UniProtKB/TrEMBL annotation:
Protein name: Serine hydroxymethyltransferase
Function according to Swiss-Prot or TrEMBL: Catalyzes the reversible interconversion of serine and glycine with tetrahydrofolate (THF) serving as the one-carbon carrier. This reaction serves as the major source of one-carbon groups required for the biosynthesis of purines, thymidylate, methionine, and other important biomolecules. Also exhibits THF-independent aldolase activity toward beta-hydroxyamino acids, producing glycine and aldehydes, via a retro-aldol mechanism.
Keyword ATP-binding: no
Amino acids binding (6S)-5,6,7,8-tetrahydrofolate: L123, G127, H128, L129
SUPFAM superfamilies from the UniProt entry: PLP-dependent transferases
Gene name linked to the record: glyA
Record-listed E.C. numbers: 2.1.2.1
Main localisation: cytoplasm
Organism: Amycolatopsis acididurans
Length: 422
């Protein structure tokens, strides 16, 4: 059992770290990974991230660098840009942001000044820290106003969005989040943004792969700026991109460099290019639709077992489960599920009466299990394991939890992951 590609040089030079890499590869292979922001990259993406490209500094943009020796790097970055533009149908793409948070910060830097008003989804309702949460720089440096969801439906309250936009006249309106199980209505956000002359930023970090594969409507033509990570459903490396229409391109590029960053991570840029080439293939469309089919099947199976799903289900890769009726908090449930070989995260639910670090819910995503080849037929069994584990956790029955972990490993042995050979 070993990491792929093999790491003999690392093993000889630093056996302690090499051993931990092998342990992590085994852990990823032996667990049902349901964290909505995680996935498995292909062997090709994995190899691209470990190349000599990491040796090169490349401040600036292709053809306009501050260091010499960019003949190869410029080609790689241009390829990544062209592929992003083709996959998403955008005028402009910047592939340099280090991660999703800096990508979002670039939108603030490009189109707002400290103290300006921004409108985003509240963290408890499913938004992201960088959408103006008080603990984030975006909440400390800007006047952040937040919209939420309707209590009776769990869906975005567009009457509230419009009222807040008209009252506060934000410079930016941010659509998207980290715990939204339903289709994001980009046309509705765009209409409100036009009414108040705001820049609409679509944060598609979670659904980028679904959009690329045609399993979720695209914000292109509605949002002025689109930010995304390149992992999650897009199945690329840990990086980010910002895509824009032609009008907003220059401001975004200046905000990324020199506004926020120095040299891009060229090995990551290459891996993004590889992932985008994979996303352009017909089989990626099948993959994206299978993610959604798996999420719907898992949601239905959980509902049958008495679980309460925020909004009553899902349209995408994500399920948000309120465990209040199960008489257990999200955190102890998530920890027990991890011991049972089912990896997910505890998460606040809208109008959650509990504290953020001890919330009522768990968040589930189906991108990683879909990459492994699991289909809708497997979801009732996963729901059964979740149900049994939650019940066992409430009774502090560790033997039952350990038994489930064994059943999980047995199933997954038939579905190998890229990056590990059993």
């Amino acid at each position: 059992m070993t990491h792929q590609p093999a790491i003999p040089t690392l093993t000889a030079a630093d056996p302690e770290i090499a051993g931990l890499v092998e342990d992590e590869a085994r852990r990823q292979a032996e667990k049902i990974r349901l964290i909505a922001s995680e996935n498995y990259v292909s062997q090709a993406v994995l190899e691209a991230t470990g190349t000599v490209l990491t040796n090169k500094y490349s401040e600036g943009y292709a053809g306009k660098r501050y260091y010499e020796g960019q003949q190869v790097i410029d080609q790689i970055e241009r390829i990544a840009i062209d592929r992003a533009k083709a996959v998403f149908g955008v005028d402009h793409a910047n592939v340099q942001p280090y991660s999703g948070s800096p990508a979002n910060l670039a939108a603030y830097l490009a189109f707002a000044n400290p103290g300006d008003t921004v409108l985003g989804m509240s963290l408890p309702a499913g938004g992201h820290l960088t959408h103006g949460a008080g603990v984030s720089a975006t909440g400390k440096w800007f006047n952040a106003v937040h919209y939420g969801v309707r209590k009776e439906t769990g869906r975005v309250d567009f009457d509230q969005v419009r009222d807040l936009a008209k009252e506060h006249r934000p410079k930016l309106i941010i659509a998207g989040g980290t715990a939204i199980p339903r289709t994001i209505d980009f046309p509705a956000f765009a209409e409100i943004a036009r009414e108040v002359d705001a820049v609409l930023v679509a944060d598609i970090a979670h659904i980028a792969g679904l959009i690329a594969g045609g399993a979720h409507p695209s914000p292109v033509g509605h949002a002025n700026v689109i930010t995304t990570t390149t992992h999650k459903t897009l199945r690329g490396p840990r990086g980010a991109m910002i895509m824009t229409d032609a009008e907003h391109a220059k401001a975004i590029d200046k905000a990324v460099f020199p506004g926020l960053q120095g040299g891009p991570h060229n090995h990551t840029t290459a891996a993004i290019a590889v992932a985008l080439a994979e996303a352009a293939k017909p089989e990626f469309r099948d993959y994206a639709h299978q993610i959604v089919a798996n999420a719907k099947a898992l949601g239905d199976a959980l509902i049958e077992r008495g679980f309460d799903l925020v909004s009553g289900g899902t349209d995408n890769h994500l399920l948000l489960v309120d465990l209040t009726s199960k008489q257990i908090g999200g955190k102890p449930a998530a920890q027990a599920l991890d011991r049972a070989g089912i990896e997910l995260n505890f998460n606040a639910v809208p109008f959650d009466p509990r504290k953020p670090f001890d919330p009522s819910g768990i968040r589930i995503g189906t991108a990683a299990i879909t990459t492994r080849g699991l289909t809708a037929e497997h979801q009732p069994r996963i729901a059964e394991w979740i149900d049994r584990t939650v019940a066992a956790a409430a009774k502090e029955d560790e033997d039952a939890i350990g038994a489930i972990a064994g059943e999980v490993r047995e199933l997954l042995s038939a579905y190998p992951i890229p990056g590990y050979r059993a």
